[in-house]
Write a structure and sequence with these properties.
alpha/beta, Rossmann fold, 2 domains, 7-stranded mixed beta sheet, 46% helix, 17% strand
């Protein structure tokens, strides 16, 4: 699988590229190595990674609990403290092995410790491979608000080894598929078409699908690294999706949603908004809704849920001058950014989703 050149780093693919990782570590003469894992990747992924790692440097393992609840500033303080106590310095390398929580928080910790140390991402979930580990966004949640604190800072290297996916439950695989569907909808109608009949998708060719998804995200990010323009296209489905994810995370009456599960709902809702705005044909909207609903179980919303979800939209990071900004589809494969939408249209989208 061909290496992808990103913004100051490379994305390597496959088992043979551990040689490139080892060469990189030797070439940069790091003082020591710290590996950040969660309880899941420590159990299921760390031994595989260490079997390929060849170094005479001292290695320390830092483990945190698994889950979105750990993605907060308190966890960062704990990691910064461990790094300090165990002698990390400016020439330390932090290797993040895990899903989106680990790559997000690990990148943020590394970017801020001693004003910045190098870090590498080894994504172990489909979501992290095609989205979270790519593009340089790192950060943590503020309470139940997603990704409110963070920086844009690129890893030194990303290594995508799809063998780690064998450790994932099916719901985690589906979660990652949501971002792959998004990449087709916003940028590549042909890629989207590959998923239109999921019964015909050859998942034995998953590596090439992952490669194309990463390439799409990278092509967008390379044009706009700091998200002042076209990179906002990647937020399709995320304005409402993040609000739904946050609401279900904080509400004890609700079962928390995986990121991809919330984004899947967000993509249906925001496709309906695109149709209401005259940007998307009716048949395209129903095709999107059908494909996504074929993969993801419907999420149940009650009438009382709508107002708090709408209230959470004011915290969306794309907002400007107090106005909520959506990224909508301009047909399949294209987007329009900075679209203002009123609450009546959002309510209509929720009504259509429930029916």
């Amino acid at each position: 699988m061909q290496t992808i050149s990103a913004n100051g780093y490379a994305v390597f693919f496959g088992e043979k590229e551990y040689d490139s990782l080892n060469h990189f570590i030797i070439q940069n003469k790091y003082s020591n190595l710290f590996i950040l894992v969660d309880s899941n990747t420590n159990e299921h992924c760390l031994l595989r990674f260490l079997s390929f790692l060849t170094t005479d440097k001292n290695i320390e393992i830092i483990e945190i609990e698994a889950g979105e609840n750990e993605k907060n500033i308190n966890t960062c303080v704990e990691i910064w403290t461990i790094l300090t106590d165990l002698g990390a310095d400016r020439k330390t390398l932090l290797i993040n092995i895990g899903g989106g929580v680990i790559t997000d928080i690990g990148g943020f910790v590394a970017s801020t410790f001693k004003r910045g140390i190098d870090f590498i991402n080894i994504p172990t979930t489909l979501l992290a491979m095609v989205d979270a580990s790519i593009g340089g966004k790192n950060g943590v949640d503020l309470g139940n608000l997603k990704n409110q604190i963070g920086v844009i800072n690129s890893p030194k290297l990303v290594l995508v080894d799809s063998e780690y996916l064998a450790t994932l439950p099916q719901n985690e695989m589906r979660s990652g598929l949501a971002e792959m569907l998004k990449h087709g909808l916003i940028y590549d109608a042909g890629y989207w078409s590959q998923f239109k009949d999921l019964n015909q998708v050859d998942f034995a060719d998953l590596d090439s699908l992952i490669h194309r998804s990463i390439a799409i995200k990278n092509e967008i990010v390379m044009q706009d690294p700091t998200e002042n323009g076209i990179r906002k296209a990647l937020n399709f489905g995320h304005t409402l999706g993040h609000a739904i994810e946050s609401y279900f995370l904080e509400n004890p009456e609700k079962k928390p949603l995986l990121h991809g599960e919330a984004i899947a709902v967000g993509m249906i809702l925001e496709s309906h908004l695109s149709w209401q705005k005259g940007l998307l044909q009716e048949n395209d909207y129903y095709e999107i809704k059908s494909v996504i609903n074929h993969v993801f179980e419907p999420v149940i919303f009650e009438e009382k849920d709508l107002k708090p979800i709408l209230n959470l939209l004011i915290h969306d990071k794309k907002n400007e001058y107090g106005k909520i900004q959506f990224t909508l589809l301009d047909g399949i494969g294209k987007t329009k950014i900075n679209q203002e939408i009123d609450n009546e249209m959002i309510t209509a989208s929720f009504f259509d989703y429930k029916n």
